[in-house]
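Take a record:
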Amino acid sequence: MKFSLCLCLLLIGLQVHCHHVPGHSDEQEGNGEEHPLEHQHHPLAGQEIEPSSYKKIVDSNAKFLFRLYKHISSDSATQNIFFSPLCISTCFAMLTLGAKDETHHQIFHGLGFNLSDIQENEIHAGFNRIVCTLNQPNNVTQMTLGNALFIEESSKPLPKFLNDVKTLYEAETFSTSFKNSKAAEYEINDYVKNKTNGKISHAVNNLDPHTVMVLLNYIFFKASWKNPFNHELTREADFFVDANTTVKVHMMSREGYYDFFHDDDLLCWVVRLPYNGDFSAWFILPDKGKLKEVEDALVVGLLNKWRTSLKHKKIELRIPKFSISGSYDVKALLQREGVNDVFNDNADLSGITGQRNLKVSKAIHKAVLDVHEGGTEAAAVTVVDITFSALLPPPPILEFNKPFLMFITNKATRHFVFMAKVHNPTA
C-alpha cells in the first residue's frame, strides 16, 4: 500500500557549565532510580483557551515557520528542504518550563511570542491543545506527536518541572546514565526507532558523557490521499531543476476535481490535495523564474487567503513521486533569531534543577518525507471524477515539473505541521 509519510525529530542536549553537577556525585544516594512524576491534574492541561488567544498562537507559529524557512533556504538555496516547525516550536516551548529571566524571554521571542501580548499560560495551554488534538487515537490519519526526556540518573530535576512537561506536553521521562555514552546513545536511538516505525533509526551519536538531559520531540505522520493516484498512470518525465539541469522523475498523474487557483500576487499556482482525515497537502508551483519571489513573499495569513481563493474545477494534475530528508542545526538557526543565552554560560535553566548550571549544548532536527501514489484501494472514488462524454475538451494540465513548495496542514489545529521545498526530486 502506498502512502504519504512524514517523520520529524528534534533533539536538545543539556550539559552543565562545568564538568560536574555541583552537589552531585556518582555515589549519590538514589543513583539509578527513576524519579516519579507527580500525577496530579495540571490546571492548564486540556484547558480551553479563548479563540483570540489561540489565533495568536497560530499566527506566531506561522510567523516562526516562515522566518525559519528563510534562514534554512538562505543556506541551501539549491537543495531540498524538509522540516517541521511544529516539532521545533513544541520542543522549545516545553524547554521554557525550566527557563528563567532573559533565557526565558529570548526563547519565547525567538519562537515568535510577545509575552506582553499573550500570557505564558495561554501559550502552554495552546500547545497542550495541539498535542492532545493530534494524538487522538480515533484520527483517520496515523499521527503521533510525542515528547521525551532522558535524564542523567544522578541528576535531581524539580518535581514541578517533571509534572509540567508530563501534563502539558505528554512527555515521557527516562533515567539514563550518560557517563556510559554508548549505552545512552543506543537507548535514545532505539526509542526513536520504535516511535518512528524504524524510519529514523540513528538520532544521536557522539553524546558527551557530561550530558545531563536530552529532550526530544518526534512526529510520525502517515496518510493516504482522499483521491489516490493510479500507479499505472505514473510515467517517466522531465523535471527542470534549473536552466542547466534536467532530471528524470516518476510523474504521477490524475484527472479529477481539485481545489486550486493561480495566485497573481505571489505568481504561483496553488493546489490543495486532501488526505483521508483532517489533513491536507498544499502544493505551490511558482511561475517560471519566480521561486525566490514566492519564498520572499511567504507571510502570516497566507493559508487563509488561499482557502478563500480556491476554485473547485477539473484538471489533470501531475506531481512527481519523491523522497527527501533534512537535518538541521537548530541552535544555529535560533541564534539568528536572538536566542543566545540558553546555548552559553549565561543560560538560566534553574527551573529544571533549581540551579543555574545547565545550558543547551546541541539542538538537532531531522526529518524524512515520502510521497507516493495513493493509499487504500479507492477505485470508486476515482471513478466519480471520470468524464463520460468524449465530446468534452480535455481538462487543463497542471504539472509540477520544476522546483516547488509543499505544506502539510491540520484543519482542527489550523497549523502548518510540515514544510518542504522540492528542488530536485531525485536528490
